[in-house]
Amino acid sequence: MSTLIADTAPPLLLSARGLVKTYGRGAAPAVAGVDLDIGERMFTTLLGPSGCGKTTILRMIAGFETADAGTISLDGVPLKGVPPERRPVNTVFQSYALFPHLTVFENVAFSLRLLSAVTNLEGRVKRALDAVHMADFGERYPHQLSGGQQQRVAVARAIVAEPRLLLLDEPLSALDRRMRAHLQVELKDLQRRLGIAFVYVTHDQEEAFALSDVVVVMNKGRIAQTADPRTIYSRPADSFVADFIGGATLVDGTVSAAGNGRASIATAIGPVDAPAVEGLAAGERAVLVIRPEALSLVPTGTGLPASVVHAVYQGERTMVEAVAQGVALRFADHAPPEVGETIGLSLDRERCFVTRIAA
Amino acid sequence: MTARLPALGRAHLALPVALLVGLGCLAPLAVLVIFSVFEVEDFELVPAFSGRAWAELFTTPSYWVLIGRALFYGAMTALLTGLAGYPVALALARLPAAWKGVAVVVLLTPLYTGEIVRIYAWRIVLGAEGLVNAVLEAVGLIDDPLKVLLFSPLTIGLVLLYNNLPFMVLAIWVSAEMVDRRLIEAARDLGARPISAFARVTFPLTLPGLAAGVFAVFALAAGEMLTPSLLGGTYGATAMAIIDNLFGTAFDWPLASALALALLVALFVAAVGLASLLLQTRGARAVLQRGRT
To answer: How many domains does chain B fold into?
Structure first.
């Protein structure tokens, strides 16, 4: 499934090296040394909690912020000193930032009207509006549109001039869950059809996984891991990534042996031998990442004894939290045990992962 | 309450104040209308109907010149303060938050000094022995004091601009604060150079502030009496001064009332016309509709 990444790397579009940005003297840097490569036609997502520096990177690419150190080049051309209006990059803003005094048509036509020689302006605006299913709304004003419709217009406005790179700053965060899911599909579809590289910023792990070819997980101004979604999920580079992606139980332990992509780790629930991140050494502190799907119920008295502390009904399944040896383990089951019950758990160690403790 | 007044919503909460303002505005007007058709006998107002005051007003060209001059002063001041105030207001809106309070106080300080004090200060600055002439002579740019600085139309224009600038700046500033900075960024992102982003986004969206400023400054400047009469020399006769004179010295209350009403109507029509012209624009409409979505 991850053929796009693994087999042939796409031609490089944007390359950032050693980016640093600090706001205010004495403050911790918002971006603390970031290298980033964006391939042509790739959907790249910067994922991380608020304040991790992902939006700052987007704003540096757009030209709204100047890096304290480091370089950004697009198509091999350094962008230093190039103002936003002269970068072949367009942005979909978090708040959409539609011009309230202009109709939908004029909002979309904005960038074309600034060009000296544009042929077929009307046709190009219509096509952009068509691409986001807003062709019938050209005469409306932004305040006459729903949030989802405004979001679509913001996308149409940003793609009409055919930028080399489209930046999207949490574009779906203001929408309700259903609209968000719907627009995720549309955005992904649009990106495939246009073949424009997207750089997408979000704090929503599910959204990042659903959309992206490449996910860049960020933590405190640094990149924690860059990989395709499957790798991020199954082989998190450190405990921060594993924790941020969510759902997993992280159990501290000491590595007793490591090599050949595996490690043995001694933990509170016993020794486990599992796939591991590269470069671990015996004696090192590390974490065992236990995904919900690595755990299954076995008859009481066999497996790892645990007592059920929570059971959260989620429709098709129930998320269960059970404590074994002082470690809270989460898993899903169709026929969940009662809270307070003692159960037996089996651990599929091939679906676990041993990774380093994040700095 | 809200159920019975669905169309008004919570607007009915403003009714008491609206009534008070309405009464306070309409009652004196009604008095003016009544006085304007009374007669004066032996320096006493007699409640007998007479069209004498209105007839005199309509047949005396000099009154119309005075009303025209008031409109001109108002329009000129609105224009000058608009031009001078716009960049100041935008700069104010872009100051760091901590400096805004300081800047507003500095901006408003001249208003605290009182009109008479300010006018005599201007006389000292602009007079034949004044600061400006002294400096120009010392530098050697002129040999004799510039007479045009004081008691000329230039003086009136300058001082009306100075007196009314704070109101214009405040009005535009409030409007400029409400323009989302992300809209400017969006314009830049879409290819607009700074000047173009201003023309296409900032300016249209600050027109309501400009309209409010024009409305206020126009009325204030057109109604000015002291500044023109104390600094304008022979150009300083204003409708306001004549009305004052008619009410006080001449005791012709009917004519004073008629002139005051005529001036009021002329100013109101002109100011509403100017302001609504600005409010008809797309930018102003977009801002004013924002609360209704």
So the answer is: 1
